[in-house]
Specification:
With about 130 residues, the protein is α+β, with helices and mostly antiparallel strands. The protein has 3 helices and 6 strands, in the order E-H-H-E-E-E-E-H-E. The mean pLDDT is about 90.
């Protein structure tokens, strides 16, 4: 079954991340690269992406009679989706274990950052 593991970050966390010492950012990114390699070796990896900051987000909404409404950016966001993994694993417990491992990515001092990771099963469309 496929699960999406969504890394949610507080805006203050993103702002502070960008001010970490370069070696701390490098250590964090290297952790993520190695983490993805381990998931690939285990056969669980489907995809993973990091996102740009909320200040670069745009909200698009359809209108009944005309061009879409485009709104944003949302620099005032308190929490935002920082990135995600899609994994293909036998059960939710395995997805939770992977999420916990990702949450332990190193913070600015090298200690686990303990960032929250939301885990959701990827649903199947009903047959019509």
């Amino acid at each position: 079954m496929k699960y999406i593991l969504m890394m949610n970050a507080p805006k203050s966390g993103w702002d502070s991340f960008m001010s970490w010492p370069p070696e701390a950012i490098k250590r964090h990114i290297e952790f993520m690269k190695e983490f993805n390699k381990k998931l690939q070796a285990q056969g669980a990896f489907v995809s993973a992406e990091g996102l740009t900051p909320p200040s670069e987000a745009t909200l698009v909404r359809a209108q009944k009679n005309g061009p879409p409404v485009i709104d944003g950016a949302f620099a005032e966001t308190k929490e935002f989706l920082a990135g995600w993994w899609v994994v293909n694993v036998p059960n939710a417990d395995r997805a939770y274990a992977i999420a916990a491992a990702a949450s332990a990515a190193p913070g600015p001092d090298g200690e686990p950052f303990c960032i929250p990771i939301e885990v959701r099963a990827i649903g199947q469309a009903p047959e019509v």
